[in-house]
Amino acid sequence: MKKLLFGAMISVMLFLLALPAIVSSQDDQDMAKQKEFRIERSISEPGMACIQCHKQEHPGIFGDWANSRHANANITCIDCHRAEETDADVNRDHFKQYEKSDSKWGRKRYRVPVSGVVSPKDCSRCHPDEAEQYKRSKHANTLEIIWKIDPWLNKGMNSDFERASGCFYCHGTVLETDEEGNLTPETWPNVGVGRINPDGSKGSCSSCHTRHRFALMEARKPQACGQCHLGPDHPQIEIYTESKHGAIYDSFGDEYNWDAAPGTWSPGVDYRAPTCASCHMSGAGTTRTTHDVTERLSWEIQAPLTVRPSDFKAFPAKTNWEVERKKMKEICLQCHGDNWVDDHYATFDKVVEEYNEVYFKPAMDLMNELYEKGLVDDEKMFDEKIEVEYYELWHHEGRRARMGAAMMAPDYTWWHGFYEVKKRYNSFMKEGRELIEHNKKAEKATDFPNATGRTTKPEAIFGSQ
């Protein structure tokens, strides 16, 4: 009997101990329901109509939004997509809807003008500093840059479709509408960083913060940048993966605090080794967060001849390279000592000097001589083999050597970089000198395929740039 009584007492005590957790769990559920009702009460009726419609029609979109910080702040579809009736990018089919009883879903529809294109100008209503920083960056102006320096475009060496399905997905294009007001398939869908929007603004925030979650975590991870920064001509994601920074990220990245509030993400607190965003955008020490990726650069290493960013003719940066290098060093010094950082930059500067002086300048002088003597035709590009050799010398191997050195990836600096530069240089110089020696014109490709693209940058027909 005593054993039974003792067991009963133990059971009652355990129940009493568990009761707060049970009550708390029930309270949490009730609070969640109350919160849901409170959110619904604070959103406008048209806003709720958007949510209810897209919840049924596009559950993926709704799910993304429902788990976003926007949803937590009661920012809904209409807050980002709302437009004026007279705007060039109004979705006319959507606007044809009018307020009436909808028998399909048992709800009202609202005659609200909306745009499918959400631009940095729209985002600036809540994120003015980020939008302004982005506006002056190379990202926002990359469409302008490539039309100035890229012979595939300004020489018309590929087709408009090849560009639409390839180049413009990363770089962006000028969005165009047809006679019915619908975005054309030649320009849409597109989230290129240099996209020209119908409201005249440049770029797409969803290049890095994809719809409709707009997660900080996603933009902070290297994979966000790796969507565009990869391949033979700008393999930053491969270079990062090879580097010590990338190796640490692969090992410990799942322990990083990816959801730290904007402006607070800090080395040694939230992450162990940097990602692309850590170095080029996030703040640390006395260096402030920025959405201008042109900042902190002391060399323009994508250019044929390496120059200071302010001397890059296609897009002269309004920065002082010494000031910007100091900002980047401040980022490095969060995890490295003075000697390490200073010696890294000394090595990087030497790589730039050797690339410029030993390889590119002699090749450039020879190429110019071939053009001047009429031995190579400069009307088109890539229809002569030696032009391809010259282009890939700087655009492929030359970039890889410089970028590898900038991001401390030795295999890319040497085997994918200078080793390949040497082979390309020797081949190019040999052929060029033979053409001059024998006064012989370079052999042309008689059937260069699909060189049909327009040779001038398309201009926006609405808004102002």
Q: What this model shows, in words?
A:
It is a single chain. With 465 residues, the protein is mostly helical. The chain is 51% helix and 1% strand. The protein has 20 helices and 2 strands. It has helices at residues 2-42, 45-57, 59-66, 69-72, 77-81, 92-95, 120-123, 128-135, 142-149, 151-154, 160-171, 216-220, 222-226, 236-242, 244-252, 276-280, 321-332, 338-372, 385-406, 410-437; strands spanning 101-102, 107-108. Strand 1 and strand 2 form a beta hairpin. Helix 18 (338-372) packs parallel to helix 20. It is globular and about 80 Å long.
Strand order of the largest sheet: 1-2
- Percentage of residues in DSSP E strands: under 5%
The biggest beta sheet is recorded as: 2 strands, antiparallel
Q: Give the proportion of residues in helices.
A: 40-55%
How far is the first residue's CA from the last residue's CA? 90 Å
Return Rg in Å: 28 Å
The beta-strand count equals 2
Summarize the helix and strand pattern as letters. HHHHHHEEHHHHHHHHHHHHHH
Bulk shape: globular
Catalogue the unreliable spans.
Answer: 31-35
Query: Which class do the helix and strand fractions yield?
Result: mainly alpha
Number of helical elements:
20
Give the topology:
Layout: H1 2-42, H2 45-57, H3 59-66, H4 69-72, H5 77-81, H6 92-95, E1 101-102, E2 107-108, H7 120-123, H8 128-135, H9 142-149, H10 151-154, H11 160-171, H12 216-220, H13 222-226, H14 236-242, H15 244-252, H16 276-280, H17 321-332, H18 338-372, H19 385-406, H20 410-437
Antiparallel strand pairs: 1-2
Give the key terms.
two-stranded antiparallel ribbon; 1% strand; 20 helices; 465 residues; mainly alpha
